[in-house]
Amino acid sequence: MNRVLAERPLEGAASENDPALRASRARQRRGRWLAHGILLLGVLIFALPIWITLVGSSHDVNTIGRGEVPLWFGSHAIDNYIAAWERGGSAVRNTRAVPAGTMLWNSAVMATLIAAGKIAISILSAYAVVFFSFPGRMAFFWMIFITLMLPVEVRIIPTFQVVVDLNLTDSMAGLVIPVIASATATLLFRQFFLTIPDEYVEAAKIDGAGPLRFFWDVVLPLSRTNIAALFVILFIYGWNQYLWPLLIITDTSLETVVVGLSKMIGRGDAQNEWNAIMATAILALLPPVAVVILMQRWFVKGLTETEK
Amino acid sequence: MRKNVIFRGKLLPLLLLSPQLAITIVFFFWPAGQAIWSSLLREDAFGLSRQFVGLENFAEVLADPTWRGAAGNTAIFAFSVAILAISAALLLAVQADKSIRGSGAYKTLLIWPYAVAPAIAAVLWLFLFHPQIGLIGRALNAAQIAWDYRLNGGQAMLLVIIASAWKQVSYNFIFFLAGLQSIPRSVLEAAAIDGARPMRRFWTVVFPLLSPTTFFLLTVNLVYAFFDTFGVIHALTQGGPAKATETLIYKVYVDGVENLNLGASAAQSVILMAIVIAMTAVQFRFIERKVHY
């Protein structure tokens, strides 16, 4: 109490009498307003396309087709989402429509399997590389590492040929297996395993625990946060797959929602069923966006640590 | 690189490695080898015989004006996306790093576009810029500016750049924010005491300290623009109008999948592989400096 009283006049004296300090305070305040202004503008630009899509998905097809772009919600939201979910929207030249419900299910299964598969095979190979010494260890490690340089886009045709030869086209296995090798995840686990103290391994050996038991009882529990962070990133990666599903899926019952949405639009004619298409777009972006927002901490950790 | 205390055994580690190795060999090395091999071959018109032609496919690809056009498009596209996404993210990150009210909420509201698939980002911007149903597209036409990205190549390019950059800003934002937060406060305070104004402080102190992050992001953004934006172009313009938005990766797809010109497509793939390897090498050369952050 005394201290506060004693300090107050001092502070007041400084801020009232020192023009430099006052100028600097005013500058700080201006800086804060500017920061709010720029950030708000950024948030609005980010949100604008989503807002238009969300609003558009609540109007009937004719309102959008006539080009009367609404800025506020209409009354057809429920009808549109039910129609999109059960029947699907379609481009005019493309009469076959796939229900969004089916496509979302396919995307969810594909994304989950890709994320889980990548984590499972990466954690096993990182464990082998870090905790064992065997001939060819480094050669194998480099083999995995080099795959970073071979994205699917640069080996489209021959990879497609392999999948055809293995009879995996138009199957969930064909969607998932060719993309679940992961150099990024292996590198991350390897880096993390190197920080596990040697004493842990010694203690395990003294207790008579073998490598598999050590993996299961010590390494796996320690890796929990890394696994969670990776899962968030890899789920989004899996959900957003485009070129690969486009190539190997012709059976509409296996269509994924990102590819399906782009097929609905076709060449973008004004006569498309835009209301159902907009509803599908919202449904298609909701799951990965929700994952990012709900698991923000893990997402940021995963992103900053797995960057290739 | 290696631990001092390890487990013994040779079979078990190989067994643990085998799933990853099997997939890597079957779906990475074998197809990449096939791409290199078939880039050296030529099939006759009926697909009956294949002939070894050496580097002829490469010479043909490099001399092909449509390939050169695609290479030019890719350069314009990739650098525009990278510069736009990096500068917007830097501006936002510097503001969000200030101690202001609600900075947590701003961060959440600025990172979600990362989760949107490139193809869906394209569709969202189509809803805005469609000449008949889009808010901005209609406004432009009403203002006597003839806007139709389906007919005008420049406008199509602009639209794919905006959609691709929009999605990438979040990624850059997260990395810039991490970079900014790791700059010691004492450095900034020292500059402030020396009387440097905020703008000057930024360009002389903050920006140089961020340069490793910026450089890292530049390579990541270029790789993104090269490869991950296939969905944007496929969903929005299909490379058109008149090949104005056909990038190298899109051309590989068109020649290989739609035109079934396997030799030329394979040669293009190999050229792209060389580009990825060069970019990854550059990125790893500088990664040491980056991780000290």
UniProtKB/TrEMBL annotation, chain A:
<dbReference type="Pfam" id="PF00528">
    <property type="entry name" value="BPD_transp_1"/>
</dbReference>
<comment type="similarity">
    <text>Belongs to the binding-protein-dependent transport system permease family.</text>
</comment>
<feature type="transmembrane region" description="Helical">
    <location>
        <begin position="108"/>
        <end position="132"/>
    </location>
</feature>
<keyword id="KW-0813">Transport</keyword>
<dbReference type="InterPro" id="IPR000515">
    <property type="entry name" value="MetI-like"/>
</dbReference>
<comment type="function">
    <text>Part of the ABC transporter complex UgpBAEC involved in sn-glycerol-3-phosphate (G3P) import. Probably responsible for the translocation of the substrate across the membrane.</text>
</comment>
<feature type="transmembrane region" description="Helical">
    <location>
        <begin position="139"/>
        <end position="160"/>
    </location>
</feature>
<keyword id="KW-1003">Cell membrane</keyword>
<protein>
    <recommendedName>
        <fullName>sn-glycerol-3-phosphate transport system permease protein UgpE</fullName>
    </recommendedName>
</protein>
<keyword id="KW-0997">Cell inner membrane</keyword>
<keyword id="KW-0472">Membrane</keyword>
<dbReference type="InterPro" id="IPR035906">
    <property type="entry name" value="MetI-like_sf"/>
</dbReference>
<feature type="transmembrane region" description="Helical">
    <location>
        <begin position="214"/>
        <end position="236"/>
    </location>
</feature>
<feature type="domain" description="ABC transmembrane type-1">
    <location>
        <begin position="104"/>
        <end position="295"/>
    </location>
</feature>
<dbReference type="GO" id="GO:0005886">
    <property type="term" value="C:plasma membrane"/>
</dbReference>
<feature type="transmembrane region" description="Helical">
    <location>
        <begin position="33"/>
        <end position="52"/>
    </location>
</feature>
<keyword id="KW-0812">Transmembrane</keyword>
<feature type="transmembrane region" description="Helical">
    <location>
        <begin position="274"/>
        <end position="299"/>
    </location>
</feature>
<dbReference type="GO" id="GO:0055085">
    <property type="term" value="P:transmembrane transport"/>
</dbReference>
<comment type="subunit">
    <text>The complex is composed of two ATP-binding proteins (UgpC), two transmembrane proteins (UgpA and UgpE) and a solute-binding protein (UgpB).</text>
</comment>
<feature type="transmembrane region" description="Helical">
    <location>
        <begin position="242"/>
        <end position="262"/>
    </location>
</feature>
<feature type="transmembrane region" description="Helical">
    <location>
        <begin position="172"/>
        <end position="193"/>
    </location>
</feature>
Automatic annotation (TrEMBL), chain B:
<dbReference type="InterPro" id="IPR050809">
    <property type="entry name" value="UgpAE/MalFG_permease"/>
</dbReference>
<feature type="transmembrane region" description="Helical">
    <location>
        <begin position="106"/>
        <end position="128"/>
    </location>
</feature>
<dbReference type="GO" id="GO:0055085">
    <property type="term" value="P:transmembrane transport"/>
</dbReference>
<comment type="function">
    <text>Part of the ABC transporter complex UgpBAEC involved in sn-glycerol-3-phosphate (G3P) import. Probably responsible for the translocation of the substrate across the membrane.</text>
</comment>
<feature type="transmembrane region" description="Helical">
    <location>
        <begin position="201"/>
        <end position="227"/>
    </location>
</feature>
<feature type="transmembrane region" description="Helical">
    <location>
        <begin position="12"/>
        <end position="32"/>
    </location>
</feature>
<keyword id="KW-0997">Cell inner membrane</keyword>
<feature type="transmembrane region" description="Helical">
    <location>
        <begin position="266"/>
        <end position="287"/>
    </location>
</feature>
<dbReference type="GO" id="GO:0005886">
    <property type="term" value="C:plasma membrane"/>
</dbReference>
<dbReference type="InterPro" id="IPR035906">
    <property type="entry name" value="MetI-like_sf"/>
</dbReference>
<keyword id="KW-0812">Transmembrane</keyword>
<keyword id="KW-0813">Transport</keyword>
<feature type="transmembrane region" description="Helical">
    <location>
        <begin position="156"/>
        <end position="180"/>
    </location>
</feature>
<protein>
    <recommendedName>
        <fullName>sn-glycerol-3-phosphate transport system permease protein UgpA</fullName>
    </recommendedName>
</protein>
<keyword id="KW-1003">Cell membrane</keyword>
<feature type="domain" description="ABC transmembrane type-1">
    <location>
        <begin position="71"/>
        <end position="283"/>
    </location>
</feature>
<feature type="transmembrane region" description="Helical">
    <location>
        <begin position="75"/>
        <end position="94"/>
    </location>
</feature>
<comment type="similarity">
    <text>Belongs to the binding-protein-dependent transport system permease family.</text>
</comment>
<dbReference type="InterPro" id="IPR000515">
    <property type="entry name" value="MetI-like"/>
</dbReference>
<keyword id="KW-1133">Transmembrane helix</keyword>
<dbReference type="Pfam" id="PF00528">
    <property type="entry name" value="BPD_transp_1"/>
</dbReference>
<comment type="subunit">
    <text>The complex is composed of two ATP-binding proteins (UgpC), two transmembrane proteins (UgpA and UgpE) and a solute-binding protein (UgpB).</text>
</comment>
